[in-house]
Design goal:
Distance between the termini: 76 Å
Number of strands: 15
Structural class: alpha/beta
Radius of gyration: 31 Å
Oligomer: single chain
CATH topology of the largest domain: Transferase(Phosphotransferase), domain 1
CATH class of the largest domain: Mainly Alpha
CATH architecture of the largest domain: Orthogonal Bundle
Largest sheet: 5 strands, parallel
Length: 650
């Protein structure tokens, strides 16, 4: 039990204190410590209040838990605001909300105590020290203390939990960064701890409103609660749907062989897959539609459907599923047919457990053809329907911290859900709704040092101190200033700003990571060509495709086989420059294919055929079924165009 004894003052007469405590004593909420006693000592007029002392740990000691787990943080924030709502419903305020007065239980549930008898500051700001940081500005001025004052305090607490420190520029704030003086709270937001992919991200705008200095400009509790409840629903929808054993990846087996079903089922469960057996093609299609499915294991014995028919069914019912065939006999014709249908493998019965284990390991490959993180960094929040039609302007301001000079700034970016795409062109360009050119804003440019990179990479840069020092030298900065043409990259962009942003990104890649320049610049120039295509600039598109192809050819050269067989990885390492990173198998496939695709688009048909032959002969191509299907489809289009030059199928 916590006891507080205070004498009434002229500013807060006895009757006002008594009425406040009576109202607070009526609050009943699991997140609020109850007032168990409140009375006046008749001898000296002192007011006594006894409050429940909750069990648990102070919020200061468990902040790291919420910083690492935004699911738990969103629930904590919702519980705190609901507790404040219970106080405000009694026409009262807390008046001194701060981490020291919030205890956290075993299940991370908050319990709020520390009610002051007087909700206004009774001492000066300087004497209050750190304990006064969380009070709203109006509480120091003697102004009316309202629900907005509690919202301000809660906003600072939430801010500190998310970003690890209080907003820069806050008077008396702890752990203030070395930001330039005079910058507002909004100017110093860092998204390092809160990325746009996070379901908690939509609360950022509300959070910034909660910490505004003027109480009339702060949001009310109702929209804050509504936003957090939507976020809680998004977290729940995005959580994996676990069965009783915790498995989340479904594999289906179609077989009439009981022994095979038992062996495959037990092995799948041991390796973390959820196993289900189907008895017909209709049932395997139904099970695939019911839950996300990783792979089909099809026993060809006892079923009449051919491999092409099964592959067609798989593409129709579960386009991302991987298909593994099982058969008693193994022939060259069967193997060729299996490869022709881009199956993930063929297992010969009686089944070898090590071979099955190897196949299950290959199922962990990411089933995406195009990696869109750096082009579309703002993915829609689960359950969010706020597309561009509903929100009007598809752009909003996002705040970044430069990965080189640590400058913080705001820049225009696409809103979550503003871009919808369901397919891709043969060179991986996502097909979007006309009128939206996402590439124009794909590159973020620091206004201070002119460092430029894709939004998804911008804040994650990790360079050596000497590399950064060299990059920030006046002579190198002059080159970037010339390339930028003194344009404004933080506001609305036209084709000019879009083009210059990609040129700046390529220049930065050359200065900061010269050994990886070809790898980085190839992606930069490729996406710049997509932008020019959307804007109807064919000559500029061709120019960027040419630059991308030059980088890809240099990058891919060490991986080119000397004969029909892929060269060994030891031989590849010998051809790389000292310090240059080895490409993964998937990257080898992608870059080899882009060499073929861009050659075809530039009319270099013989060179395109050369690269197509090389990439289609890669021994690990079959490990990436979706990518392999995409490459085969692009190759068919290319051959069709060569056969009939009048038909444009690219």
């Amino acid at each position: 039990m916590l006891v507080q004894i205070v004498r009434g003052t002229v500013a807060q007469p006895e009757i006002a204190v008594s009425e406040r405590l009576k109202r607070l004593a009526e609050v009943r909420h699991p997140g609020i410590c109850e007032i168990v006693l409140q009375q006046t000592d008749r001898r000296d007029g002192r007011r006594l209040m006894a409050m429940e002392l909750p069990a648990g740990r102070p919020l200061d000691q468990v902040g790291d838990i919420f910083a690492k787990n935004h699911d738990a943080l969103s629930l904590f924030m919702l519980n705190v605001l609901e507790a404040l709502s219970a106080i405000h419903e009694r026409d009262e305020v807390h008046g001194n909300l701060q981490p020291a007065f919030i205890m956290i239980g075993e299940k991370n549930e908050p319990r709020i105590g520390g009610f002051p008898m007087y909700p206004v500051a009774m001492i000066s700001r300087e004497k209050a020290g750190d304990e006064g940081i969380y009070l709203a500005p109006e509480q120091w001025k003697g102004g009316p203390v309202t629900a907005a004052s509690d919202i301000y305090s809660a906003g600072l607490i939430f801010w500190e939990l998310i970003f690890g420190r209080l907003p820069s520029g806050l008077a008396g704030a702890k752990n203030i960064s070395h930001s330039r003086p005079g910058r507002s709270t909004e100017d110093t937001v860092s998204l390092r701890a809160l990325t746009p992919q996070d379901p908690l991200f939509p609360f950022l705008e509300h959070l910034m409103g909660m910490t505004r200095g003027e109480p009339e400009n702060r949001p009310a509790l109702a929209p804050l609660l509504a936003c957090l409840r939507d976020i809680r629903a998004a977290f729940e929808r995005s959580a994996p749907k676990l069965d009783q054993k915790g498995d989340t990846r479904q594999c289906l087996l179609l077989t009439k062989d009981e022994t095979l079903a038992t062996l495959v089922g037990l092995t799948m469960k041991e390796f973390g897959f959820r196993f289900q057996r189907a008895w017909s093609y209709r049932e395997i299609a139904r099970l695939s539609n019911a839950e996300p499915t990783v792979a089909w294991f099809i026993d060809l014995d006892g079923f009449q459907d051919s491999m092409p028919e099964i592959a067609t069914l798989g593409m129709k019912e579960a386009p991302e599923v991987k298909i593994v065939f099982l058969a008693t006999s193994f022939t060259r014709e069967l193997a060729e047919e299996c490869m022709g249908q881009l199956a993930n493998g063929i297992l010969v019965k009686p089944l070898s457990v090590p071979r099955l284990v190897q196949t299950l390991s290959s199922l962990n490959e990411e089933p995406e053809i195009v990696e869109n993180e750096y082009l579309f960094p703002l993915r829609p929040v689960p359950g969010d329907t706020g597309g561009s039609e509903q929100q009007g302007n598809p752009y909003h301001v996002l705040f970044f911290e430069c990965g080189v000079c640590r400058e913080r700034f705001g820049t225009l970016q696409l809103k979550p859900g503003a871009v919808e795409y369901h397919t891709a062109d043969t060179d991986f360009c996502p097909v979007c709704k006309e009128g939206i050119v996402p590439e124009t804003y794909a590159i973020v440019v620091c206004p201070s040092c002119l460092y430029a990179n894709f939004a998804g990479r911008f804040q994650r840069a990790a360079f050596l101190p000497e590399t950064i020092a060299r990059f920030l030298e006046e002579s190198n900065l002059e080159d970037r200033v010339k390339a930028s043409h003194d344009l404004d990259f933080q506001n609305e962009r036209t084709l000019t700003e879009g083009v210059r942003s990609f040129d700046l990104a390529a220049l930065c890649a050359k200065e900061l990571e010269p050994l990886e320049y070809d790898r980085l610049a190839a992606g930069i120039y490729l996406k710049a060509s997509w932008m020019c295509r959307r804007l109807g600039k064919p000559l500029m598109e061709t120019d960027y495709q040419t630059r991308a192809l030059e980088c890809i050819m240099r990058l891919y050269h060490p991986y080119l086989p000397l004969s029909k067989r892929f060269t060994s990885w030891e031989s590849v390492r010998e051809k790389l420059k000292p310090g240059q990173e080895l490409l993964g198998e998937r990257a080898v496939v992608v870059n080899g294919f882009l060499g073929a695709e861009l050659s075809a688009r530039l009319g270099l048909d013989e060179q395109a055929e050369f690269y197509f032959d090389k990439v289609l002969a890669l021994p690990f191509l079959s490990r990436f079924p979706l990518l392999a299907r995409h490459i085969h489809a692009a190759h068919r289009k290319f051959r069709k165009r060569r056969k009939d030059p009048t038909e444009n199928v690219l």
